[in-house]
Design goal:
This protein is mostly helical. Helices cover 50% and strands 6% of the residues. Strands 1-2 form a two-stranded antiparallel ribbon.
């Protein structure tokens, strides 16, 4: 799944996809945003609109 248009995605679906990709394909959120060439702060802000926080110690949004 291409995350380049994450701004228009449903936030629950986006959180699920991002967590899955970090778990299965990337080691960190930084690796994921670099690969898809997306803004880390904008991604975090988008997910925060639905109450999801990034927990760096587990590399997941919850």
């Amino acid at each position: 799944m291409d995350l380049s248009k994450f701004e228009t995605m449903d936030t629950v679906m986006l959180m699920s996809i991002v967590n899955m990709k970090i778990r299965d394909e990337f080691n960190t959120l930084d690796d994921l945003v670099k690969f898809f060439d997306i803004n880390r702060d904008q991604l975090i802000a988008k997910l925060a609109t639905s109450g999801f926080d990034f927990l760096p110690e587990v590399q997941q949004f919850r």
